[in-house]
Amino acid sequence: MRTFAKNPAIALNRFGLGARPGDTIPDDPSRWLLAQLDAYDPRPAPIASLARTPDLVEAWLTQQRAVRQAPEGERAAIRETYLRRGREEHLAAVGARMDQALQTSTPLVERLVYFWSNHFAVSVDKVQIVAMAGSLEADAIRPHVLGRFEDLLLACVRHPAMLLYLDQAQSIGPQSVAGRRAGMRDAQRQRGLNENLAREILELHTLGVRSGYSQADVTEFARALTGWTLPGDSERGAGNAPGATFRFVPTLHEPGARTVLGRTYAEGGEQQALGILHDMATSAATARHVATKLARHFVADEPPPALVQRLADVFLRTGGDLPAVYRELLTAPEAWEPGQPKFKSPWDWGVSSLRALGRTQVPPAQAAALMNQLGQPVWRPGSPAGYDDVTATWAAPDALLRRVEVAQRLAGQAGNAVDARALAPQVLPGSLSRDTADALARADSGRTALALMLVSPEFLRR
To answer: Which of 88-92, 161-165, 240-244, 423-427 bottoms out in mean pLDDT, i.e. has the lowest?
Structure first.
């Protein structure tokens, strides 16, 4: 296997979030990245300013109770008040995410947070979760990004944003106590099994598509998941533990053993689904699915098969220890091949542009508007599959035109205070081409040079 000198530009841009003016160029790029695994803070100041998930759940429960108790004519106004406050929470979370991206001293781990947030995607197109989408990243992903995959998986699929987004909170076992009772009250309006969460765990979160599971596996897994819901609503079970964000309700659970992927799981209440999740989280198919996605994100749209296999082997050997997988990736020769195989997503490009300009804060409304203009609204991919991670999705002519417009605006805001000719070697160390350097030198103004740098081929890629 060929080895390559470790270019600091790869460390800063492919693995990090882009260089900032005055950043020290790492002498040992690999060591610089590995050290971040020990320096990461899951709740830095921008994130610590946000409402925690238990508070957001309490607000949701309060709204639910108020709607039930209010006259019909007042319910729409109660819901709209809740959604307005939810949009404020969402905007604050977008701003905190952006500020953390601009300020962080551990950009590798922040990139991993964004990777897993897209892997366990929710979308605020479903307005019921608009207040909670940011807390899934802050309270489920950030604390577990350097832990075991199984713990990360469990934290995400039991987070209230995920339970609401995929309608798990509405899933009732048809033969459960609650299901039979509902059928006796009104057979025409009987609520039953919802398979959304089960399907997405199988297809997106663990095994991946074309991994051998069947529709019967989806249904059986969905039956095992019944009873997994949010706290509250006393008619669906006992009271909540203080600060609870998840609850298992036995009366909603479909009784009986379940057979998933050829293995039988005895009736055991909440433990039944936990057993299935454990086997999925530690399976060879999941190892390969996760390895492929990591290699695609960090190395190439078509990841090298040998690298994928090595990452999957480490995943299996360590029981899904994520830092061990990251270390294998960071020391892989394929990850340091010359060139810039990955085209920056709108989030990558927006963050790296602001970092290059030395920005450390952006007002939340401006951060949200920026990502909306660039075509990658935060936590709004439109589906549980998240945003695509390949060049073809982000390199269309209209998308590039948006970047040109934003680059011109950012350059105008910076004025002539930023010298792109001096800045370019700092933010593109070892990757600034002669053609780009010459174009910057010929630019008729400092603003034009800065805009050219931000949309140069080297800056558009990582």
So the answer is: 240-244
The answer to whether the beta carbons of residues 80 and 262 sit under 8 Å apart is no
User: What integer pLDDT is reported at residue 237 of this predicted model?
Assistant: 44
Mean pLDDT of 47-57: 97
pTM of the model: 0.95
Angle between helices 29-39 and 107-119 (to 10 degrees): 70
Classified as helix, coil or strand, 436 is helix
pLDDT confidence bin for 184, thresholds 50/70/90: confident
Q: What is the rounded CA–CA span in Å between residue 19 and residue 32?
A: 13
Instruction: State how far the Cα of 414 lies from the Cα of 460, in Å rounded to an integer.
Output: 19
- Token pair belonging to 372: 């909306």
Q: What is the rounded average pLDDT for all residues in the chain? A: 94
Length in residues, the chain = 462
Beta bridge partners of 461: 343
Give the contacts of 370 (CB within 8 A, at least 6 positions apart): 350, 362, 406
Residues 6+ apart with CB under 8 A from 150: 277, 278, 281, 282, 319, 320
CA–CA separation, 379 and 103 (whole Å)? 20
Tell me how many degrees the CA angle 185-189-194 measures, rounded to the nearest 5.
115
CA–CA dist 307, 294 (Å, integer): 10
What pLDDT score was predicted for residue 190?
A: 59
Name residues whose C-beta falls within 8 Å of residue 151's C-beta, 6 or more positions apart in sequence: 144
What is the residue type of 5? A
Report which secondary-structure segment, H or E, holds 14. none
- The single-letter DSSP state of residue 11 is I
Distance CA 334, CA 221 (A): 38
pLDDT at 7: 87
CA distance 57 to 171: 19
What distance in Å separates the CA atoms of residue 225 and residue 173, rounded to the nearest whole number?
9
Output 118-121 pairs: Cβ under 8 A, ≥24 positions apart. Answer: 118/381, 118/386, 118/387, 118/389, 119/204, 119/205, 119/293, 119/386, 120/152, 120/153, 120/156, 120/157, 120/162, 120/205, 121/204, 121/379, 121/381, 121/383, 121/384, 121/385, 121/386, 121/387
Q: What does the pLDDT look like over 139-180, one tens digit per residue?
A: 999 999 999 999 999 999 999 999 999 999 999 999 999 999
Residues 391-413, mean pLDDT to the nearest whole number: 96
Residue type, 47: I
Q: Where are the alpha helices (DSSP H) in 146-232?
A: 149-157, 160-165, 177-185, 196-200, 215-225
The pLDDT, as a whole number, for residue 145 is: 98
Backbone angles phi, psi at 228, to 5 degrees: -80, 115
